[in-house]
Design a protein that fits this description.
7 helices
Length: 163
């Protein structure tokens, strides 16, 4: 009788352990996937930061993807700064896009300034593009004008030829 009870208890502990392990895997999989994606992309984010984001109800996916975009563009924006913009109601993707566009256009734009403008209701990305276009018309040092362009419109010079 005692042996049967011991076997039953052993089976119950094994079942509880398996359920706990499956629960851990289901809950940790999104976090571990984001962490691995960040590591492989060179946009290092600590695993504990991702776990803390989950507890603070911050969409860690937005933070990771925008940190990766920034790193690929040569901007090292810390995850904590990206995360701070989220609960304030800022549009992280637009701010990161503005930072990338300002870097490409040679416009000095700090993270704090971009975030403040975003939280004030300004479309920072459109502002940067407008400034870059305004500057592109008068560039006496290079002797040519470069306009921000999309894929369907090639870059133009003052002479109208290709750069």
């Amino acid at each position: 009788m005692e042996q049967a009870i011991a076997e039953l208890a052993s089976s119950a502990f094994a079942a509880i352990g398996a359920i706990c392990f499956l629960l851990f895997v289901v809950l940790a999989q999104p976090i571990l996937g984001l962490w691995l994606q960040a590591m492989l992309s060179g946009a290092r984010i600590e695993l504990r930061d991702l776990i803390a984001m989950r507890f603070r109800k911050v969409d860690a996916r937005i933070i990771v993807l925008n940190r990766i975009r920034a790193m690929r563009a040569g901007l090292d924006l810390p995850a904590r700064e990206l995360e701070a913009q989220h609960p304030a109601g800022g549009d992280i993707a637009r701010v990161v896009s503005a930072m990338i566009a300002s870097r490409k256009a040679g416009i000095l734009l700090g993270w704090d300034d971009a975030c403040a403008r975003d939280l004030a209701g300004e479309d920072v990305f459109e502002t940067v593009n407008a400034e870059a276009e305004r500057r592109s018309f008068d560039d006496p040092e290079r002797g040519e004008t470069r306009i921000l362009h999309s894929e369907h419109r090639p870059p133009m010079t003052r002479s109208g030829g290709q750069p």
